[in-house]
From TrEMBL:
This is tRNA-specific 2-thiouridylase MnmA. Belongs to the MnmA/TRMU family. Residues 143-145, 298-299 are annotated as: Interaction with tRNA. The active site is at C96 (nucleophile), C193 (cysteine persulfide intermediate). It is found in: Cytoplasm. Keywords: ATP-binding, Cytoplasm, Disulfide bond, Nucleotide-binding, RNA-binding, Transferase, tRNA processing, tRNA-binding. GO terms for molecular function: ATP binding; tRNA binding; tRNA-uridine 2-sulfurtransferase activity. Residues 203-265 form the tRNA-specific 2-thiouridylase MnmA-like central domain. Disulfide bonds join C96-C193. It comes from Candidatus Scatousia excrementigallinarum. GO terms for biological process: tRNA wobble position uridine thiolation.
Amino acid sequence: MGLNKKKAVVAMSGGVDSSVTALLLQQNGYEVEGITGRMVNTTAADIVCSNAQRVADKLGIRLHILDISSNFKKKVINYFENSYANGETPNPCIVCNEFFKWGEIFNFAVNECGADFYATGHYANIKYTGGFYKLYPAKDEHKDQLYFLYRLGQTELSKTVFPLYHYNKSEVRQMAYDYDLPPKSSKESQDICFIQKPDTAKKYLINKFGLKKGDFIDINTCEKLGEHDGSYLYTIGQRKGIGIAAAYPLYVIKIDAEKNIVYLGKNEDNYCKSLIVQDLRLSYPLEKKEFDALVKIRYNMKAQKAHVTLSDNSAQIEFYEPVSSVTSGQAGVFYDLEDSHLLGGGKVI
């Protein structure tokens, strides 16, 4: 940062993080433009575009609105629906990052806008070391977003900057207040962008698939414990919302989407030590095919030590201690044991 009149194009959502990202780049001497991807054709999408325009106007920068709704439906929404229909739990943000934020939007920024750098409000750090661009954790460990970025390769990383990497979220919000940016008091957005309140993911799926009566089965005894309204409404490790009285807490252990069966068990049934990820993506070429690493199988877990064995397009992961809720469809992401930089990951099968 700090190279005079290099052009940076910022992916802008109208929220605090992307708005402060644009501000910081502007303050560091970049020629800044914004780009907003219109993911869906809804009133909520109109609001996102309008909010982004307000920020652009405040900063005096040009904003491009890129309609990607057609491909977004095919790549993200269809994937989201099909995953649940197949008994998996999807991670739409990872898919969106690969195909849109660092796909269509990234390509438009570089090829059409002539960006030297593409920037987003993600909390992550890129360093060029050992001949490769590598992703390192951000200062704010509560906001660290490497997990969602594991599918980015050298081409994307070489053109990307993350100005927020050395700030805490509270500092970023304070900057929004200090410079009177429009989203300064907006709440943190954690929701799926194409499901609007008061809708929930559950309501969305019921509207899509309807209610489909199926059985709850005890994973150990094969006894029928009750009935549910559709296997797609459950995810591995789920405890709340099962609605069956038992002498001990019941957890979702396994989902058979084809037979519409949800298998339940005790907490100890929810742990295992090994898993496989496929559709492998490495952040940069790794010298070894076998190594110890820190591994996450969902975003909000603490990374656990495991032994990773790479194959052509998959990896076997053996944890040193059992982990809970290994969920098909989520990402298994591995990090360097010494400094926690991102190595790669894949889809849990």
